[in-house]
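job 3f2a | input accepted
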Amino acid sequence: MHFYLGIDIGSVSSKFVLINRDGQIKDKIYLRTQGNPVKAIKEGYVRIKDSNKGQDIKIRGVGATGSGRHLAAILVGADVVKNEITSHAVASSSLYNNVKTIIEIGGQDSKIILLKDGIVHDFAMNTVCAAGTGSFLDQQALRLNIPIEEFGERAIKCKQPVRIAGRCGVFAESDMIHKQQMGYPVEDILMGLCEALVRNYLNNVGKGKKIQEPIVFQGGVAANVGLKKAFEKMLKAEVFIPDYYEVMGAIGSALLAKEYVEQYGKPTVFKGDDFIVEGEFKSSSFECKGCPNLCEIVCIKRDEKILAYWGDRCKKWETSLNKLKVI
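job 3f2a | predicted structure (327 res):
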């Protein structure tokens, strides 16, 4: 039974997907990165193996994406390493014919991807302001003492959304507290927060972009039905949410690995259980004093053997391993 593994390592969450030769999802794992991507990669792989224990599963190809994609490629062995824009676009295109706009909102960043004839022709990202990301809603749910899982369901029960300033996360929070003190119903405040996030997204990430249908909304924040309703209200269009909205990046990377292996027929560089499960991985950093840049160099080791360096602008440390034939 041949399968393809897709890995999406983000700053907040890590996603793992197993697909078969037909592109159908066999299994998925979603877990928190918790500031330790090395541990998350190993744990995610172990969990996906354990959930399929006793089955004859052979991984024929691996794809990696996300901010930690290069790290995943080193630890697991990836045949394809692609950015999040490409991976999300591939995943959406595989599920929705002629998709033109992809709205992707995660825990700490958000993106808009515009496609034409199945090809990405424009995109934008927001990695600066928290007001347009999932962490904004997490913080406000905590302040309102509401589980984030109940946020959306309670928001759509509102009678009249409260207008909350959404340009800045700090101002939005103070505005929300003011409305709370004035006695507005919690449900109205929750929907007001959803609409504030959507306004922030459209005014920043979506500024100057021509948003066309079909529109797909994905990323962990897509679980919030209040946001779906707010997007549909402001865009005056239907917004589709995939069944596997939270792992779309991993799905896209798995599909890219499948395409690569089948097209070129090369053996996978996947490192296997012995390397991933039994090895002890550690990461450390140091400051290079070779020039005025003073780059922070990250070093990854497995059982005290150096696997990779990165972070140096001049690639002095990164290329030194190739000379030593360590990797």
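job 3f2a | The two ends are 29 Å apart (CA to CA).
job 3f2a | closed
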